[in-house]
């Protein structure tokens, strides 16, 4: 059995990805920041459908905790799957902060930096010894690196850096057969960023009008795509930025 570790998978796109990956017979390590109950509900859903999953706590912004997380992961892999490695890493955990460039504070900038860039950089580095050869990494970015909306300068800048990092990881990890890609969702109706796309009908309608398919995305538009990128079907797709926006702002 292949095993996937998906950060921030107790809710939103991460949850949908965990469920979609599990449906393909992949074991899932669900990570959560604070809401253990939500994470265990994801595990229970996967288990009820005949899959295998466990939940681990992870603060993706705290690099100092990554070594102990790796130790916990090693134990879980051995106890649950009798393995010393896992196969797929999805760097999904994130937060949304909307602030005009002129009003963005250093603390907001640092929070976005730690969660969206520094965290994935050093978490991936820390977990490299546990990631199996011929493995897969998917880094979650955003459509906002291609098109621009006021208030997302810092957030999009971090995601732009992740897209560059993806190409470097693909180059440096290629000798191990590890494939690395970026997935950039467009506007998705989740609780991300306070649920604005989902709950603000004016915003939802405006974004839908800017999308070829005439609607904003739903989590189920993204989870199966992540599962596909982790599969052998996508083995020759590498170092790419793949946008899943329904044709937004084209």
Write a concise synopsis of the structure shown.
This protein has 250 residues and is of the alpha/beta class.
Protein traits:
250 residues, single chain, alpha/beta, seven-stranded parallel beta sheet, Rossmann fold
Could you characterize the architecture of this molecule?
By secondary structure, the chain is α/β, with parallel strands linked by helices. It has one domain: NAD(P)-binding Rossmann-like Domain (Rossmann fold). The protein is 44% helix and 17% strand. The protein has 8 helices and 7 strands; from the N terminus they run E-H-E-H-E-H-E-H-E-H-E-H-H-H-E. It has a 7-stranded parallel sheet with strand order 3-2-1-4-5-6-7, with helices on both faces. Helix 1 (12-23) crosses helix 8 (219-230). The radius of gyration is 17 Å and the shape is globular. It starts with a strand and ends in a 6-residue tail after the last strand. The model has no long low-confidence stretch (mean pLDDT 96).
Topology:
Elements: E1 3-6, H1 12-23, E2 27-32, H2 36-48, E3 53-57, H3 66-81, E4 86-91, H4 106-127, E5 131-140, H5 153-173, E6 179-185, H6 196-199, H7 201-209, H8 219-230, E7 241-244
Parallel strand pairs: 1-2, 1-4, 2-3, 4-5, 5-6, 6-7
Helix and strand content put the structural class at alpha/beta
Q: Any idea what the CATH superfamily is called?
A: NAD(P)-binding Rossmann-like Domain
Termini separation comes to 40 Å
Count of β-strands: 7
| Strand ordering within the main sheet | 3-2-1-4-5-6-7
Q: What is the mean pLDDT?
A: 96
Multimerization state: single chain
Residue stretches low in confidence (pLDDT < 50, at least 5 long) are none
The count of domains is: 1
Quickly give the CATH architecture. Answer: 3-Layer(aba) Sandwich
Pattern of helices and strands: EHEHEHEHEHEHHHE
User: Percent of residues in beta strands?
Assistant: 15-25%
């Amino acid at each position: 059995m292949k095993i996937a570790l998906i950060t921030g998978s107790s809710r939103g796109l991460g949850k949908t990805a965990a469920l979609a990956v599990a449906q393909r017979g992949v074991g899932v390590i669900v990570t959560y920041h604070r809401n253990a109950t939500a994470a265990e509900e994801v595990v229970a859903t996967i288990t009820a459908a005949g899959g295998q999953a466990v939940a681990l706590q992870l603060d993706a912004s705290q690099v100092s905790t990554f070594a102990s997380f790796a130790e916990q992961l090693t134990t879980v892999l051995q106890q649950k799957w009798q393995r010393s490695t896992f196969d797929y890493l999805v760097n999904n955990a994130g937060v949304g902060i909307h602030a005009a460039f002129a009003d963005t504070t250093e603390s907001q900038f640092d929070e976005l930096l730690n969660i969206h860039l520094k965290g994935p950089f050093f978490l991936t580095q820390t977990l490299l010894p546990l990631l199996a050869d011929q493995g897969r990494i998917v880094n979650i970015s955003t459509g906002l690196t291609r098109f621009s909306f006021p208030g997302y300068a810092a957030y999009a800048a971090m995601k732009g850096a992740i897209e560059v990092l993806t190409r470097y990881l693909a180059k440096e990890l290629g000798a191990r057969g590890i494939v690395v890609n970026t997935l950039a969702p467009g506007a998705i109706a989740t609780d991300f960023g306070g649920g604005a796309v989902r709950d603000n009908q004016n915003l939802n309608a405006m974004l839908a009008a800017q999308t070829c398919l005439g609607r904003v995305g739903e989590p189920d538009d993204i989870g199966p795509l992540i599962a596909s990128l982790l599969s052998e079907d996508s083995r020759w797709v590498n170092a790419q930025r793949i946008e899943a926006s329904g044709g937004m702002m084209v």
